[in-house]
Design a protein that fits this description.
The protein has 735 residues and is mainly beta. It has five helices and 43 strands. The chain has a 26-stranded antiparallel beta barrel. A six-stranded antiparallel β-barrel has the order 7-8-11-12-10-9. Strand 37 and strand 38 form a beta hairpin. The chain starts with a strand and ends in an 8-residue tail after the last helix. 23% of the residues are buried. The N terminus is likely disordered.
Length: 735
């Protein structure tokens, strides 16, 4: 084998043009191999390098992704003029593109490139043509009599054929006299076509269907990319029983100044009471949704986030944007800015009520300075703090006729000293002592009941924990896919003492209050416990036990079992509390890489029953089928709220390469009602995927409803993120 480095290293220049990637220009040739499948002939004379007999040139660079393989019957390099010629079955193979043709010419001085007849592929686009020319100085490609498709078949279903195509990598593509073909049938003619390459191509999506609350409907969306800074969509929908609905979406990329999203939708609802969920509420005919979100990091460690959500009524997203409604039933409106330093952070949050039918705590604003744990000079002591000040309004929903609004100013400052120590090389002990002062101005408003208050709170306590492990390297078990075992156990004890404050929670306006219907124990210590207005006396020991049983699978360490247990022992408990809290458990069990069991529970050790649980089991043994089953249970309780006992399941099966089916069910065991049924058949249409979905809903609030819809997704630019249709089946029948 002959190795030549200098003469052919310049091939990277034209390869970078083909790829449109600047990093190829920066790649350095580490090794260049020229070989042949048959008898190899290489001649070097007078600046000419000639190789023949099925030549294979492998260019190995300093950037592995830039490695290239060039094959041809003959290759000639003229180092005097910079010309490179390849003849006969020329093929260029790179990481994510392949070019082929009978003849190739390149000049590495001028970086000019010419192909004769060519074929090129870079997913999701494939292209053929009579000739391809590139100017290296401006990296512009031009092809004549070209055909472009996203259908990776010898006889593509849809193609665009043009007399001339101009491509500027990463910027745009232009086509002259372009014709869209379906098979061999011309469908549409474009005398001139321009498409940005900075995002997905502009395209329409249509979702036809039928729903009991809509009648026949057609949801139409035009998705577009204007440039690197702007893309979006325009919705134009028709629902036979509800009327027309329209609205634009805008996504802005502002570079260092962040990203912004704006969405607006309006419909004149002809029958706003058709859905029984909204039948008991006054719903206007003019229904609209406006949404704005912004996120930016304009300076180092300065983060800005904002969101504005306006709804004409509480059910507009429920009726027309079910996927959004399921994700966020009550969207907030806020502006938040945070600046981070090595030991400090400053956060300013403004939140106000835009939708009067949702309860909101307005923060006008709430400014918080946090001192992260930091060592006090050279001592073993650490200091941390959190101070905030703001003006707050408790704005109840306008449908709440029992409670009335109130407002007040609040200033709060918390400071704490800790002394982390390790004893015997394994026992971590962290004693702490701190205090806080909170000032409340006199509350005003129709619901005001509190006066000027100054509250003092002292806290102390200690946390102790250790970690122990044991390894069994020879442990093997085929059933549970065990290849060695390691057990890690970490018990912990955390004691917290807070004497009774001089101001009780009922005597302070409640802006930051405590919720109790959670699968997790509330934070025990400050400042993690952030229900500032609900602080009361505390004398509690929290016991924790964390277990991990790990094994190796595929060379990686994985948790076979993860089990975390927590429980509080209330040495002094308030009225309505028991000595011991519920036992909170989080369990994850992975007996195989394709089988996962997860469970979160609250177990009442006093009555010997579960108060709350959420469990699931997921099978994903192969790409042919997968199954998921889950259960959610809440016991009827004055604190936890109304009870619930529901089961859900999802099953997906691929019949073959072209057909698949999915079933999703939701059963309410409390009422014995099959609340939701979703049945979907998928069909692979080469460049497209089609889904036919039938949906049946049956619950106490809205009664029975049926829906059927057909969804199309372009493979090159999928309509749904991976698994979205399984997690959120509502997206298959609407927005």
């Amino acid at each position: 084998m002959t190795k030549l480095r200098a003469p052919l290293s310049v091939l990277l220049l034209w390869l970078s043009l083909v790829m449109g990637r600047a990093e190829l220009l920066q790649a350095k040739v580490v090794e260049l191999d020229i070989s042949s499948k048959g008898d190899f002939v290489a001649i070097q004379t007078n600046g000419l390098v000639f190789a023949t007999n099925d030549v294979v040139v492998q260019v190995i660079t300093s950037i592995p992704a830039s490695n290239v393989v060039l094959s041809a019957d003959k290759v000639l390099v003229n180092t005097n003029t910079g010309d490179v010629d390849a003849e006969g079955s020329v093929r260029v193979q790179m990481t994510n593109i392949t070019l082929a043709g009978p003849h190739f010419h390149f000049n590495y001085d001028t970086r000019q490139m010419d192909w004769g007849e060519f074929r090129a592929g870079r997913s999701p686009f494939f292209m053929t043509g009579r000739a391809l020319h590139a100017e290296g100085t401006n990296e512009v490609f031009s092809a004549t009599n070209a055909m472009v498709t996203t259908d990776d078949y010898s006889n593509p279903l849809e193609t665009v054929r043009a007399s001339r195509v101009t491509i500027v990598p990463r910027q745009y593509i232009e086509a002259r006299n372009a014709v869209l073909y379906a098979g061999n049938v011309p469908v549409f003619y474009f005398p001139y076509y321009h498409q940005n390459l900075t995002g997905n191509p502009n395209h329409f999506t249509f979702l036809p269907g039928y729903r009991g609350i809509f009648g026949p409907y057609l949801l139409s969306t035009y998705e577009y990319t204007y440039n690197q800074q702007l893309n979006g969509a325009i919705h134009a929908d028709y629902r036979e029983q509800r009327g027309f609905g329209v609205g634009p979406d805008f996504d802005l990329n502002l570079g260092r100044f962040g990203e912004a999203t704006f969405k607006y939708y309006y419909t004149y609802d002809q029958r706003p009471y058709l859905d029984q969920v909204t039948n008991s509420t006054e719903i206007p005919h003019n229904r609209q949704r406006a949404y704005f979100a912004y996120q930016a990091t304009p300076l180092t460690n300065l983060n800005i986030m904002s969101q504005v959500a306006y709804l004409s009524d509480p059910y507009v997203t429920h009726d027309f944007f079910e996927s959004q409604y399921q994700k966020d039933i009550q969207p907030n409106t806020f502006v938040d800015a945070e600046k981070l330093w090595s030991n400090w952070s400053l956060d300013g949050l403004t939140q106000w009520q835009v939708d009067p039918f949702y309860e909101t705590v307005e923060r006008l604003p709430d400014v918080r300075l946090t001192g992260l744990p930091q060592q006090i000079f050279g001592t073993p002591f650490f200091y941390q703090s959190e101070s905030s000040a703001g003006y707050f309004r408790r704005q109840f929903a306008d449908t709440n006729v029992v409670q009335e609004n109130y407002e007040a100013a609040r200033a709060d400052t918390f400071h704490q000293i800790t002394l982390p120590e390790t004893f015997f090389g394994w026992l971590d002990v962290i004693p702490r002592a701190g205090g806080r002062f909170t000032y409340y101005s006199p509350a005003t408003g129709p619901g005001a009941t509190t006066t000027n208050q100054s509250r003092w709170v002292f806290n102390t306590g200690m946390e102790a924990s250790f970690k122990a492990s044991q390894v069994w390297p020879g442990a093997r078990n085929d059933l549970f896919d065990v290849n060695g075992l390691r057990h890690i156990i970490q018990p912990s004890v955390n004691y917290a003492y807070v004497p009774r404050p001089n101001v009780q929670p009922q005597d302070a306006p409640q802006f930051d209050y405590q919720l109790s219907n959670s699968l997790q124990l509330p934070a025990l210590t400050f400042p993690e416990f952030n229900a500032i207005d609900a602080i009361d006396s505390q004398n509690t020991i929290r016991f924790g036990l964390n277990n991990r049983l790990q094994t190796k699978r595929g060379g990686d360490v994985m948790d076979l079992v993860y089990w975390d247990l927590d429980m509080d022992w209330r040495l002094r408990h308030d009225a309505g509390q028991t000595t011991f809290s519920d036992l909170f458990s989080t369990l994850e069990f992975r007996p195989r890489s394709w089988l996962t069991v997860e469970s979160q529970t609250r177990y009442d050790i006093n009555s010997g029953r579960f108060n709350l649980s959420q469990s699931s089991i997921t099978f994903q043994p192969n790409s042919t089928w997968n199954l998921g089953v889950g259960q959610y249970f809440v016991r009827d309780d004055p604190v936890l709220g109304p009870g619930n006992n529901s089961f859900n399941g999802t099953f997906l099966y691929r019949l073959n390469e072209n057909w698949a089916a999915r079933i999703a069910e939701n059963f309410d065991a409390k009422t014995g009602t099959l609340q939701e049924q979703d049945y979907t058949i998928y069909r692979d249409l080469r460049s497209w995927t089609a889904a036919l979905t039938f949906r049946a809903l049956n619950n106490q609030s809205s009664g029975q409803e049926y829906a059927v819809a057909v969804t199309f997704s372009f493979k090159a630019f999928p309509r749904f993120a991976l698994g979205q249709d399984t997690v959120n089946p509502a997206s298959l029948v609407g927005y």
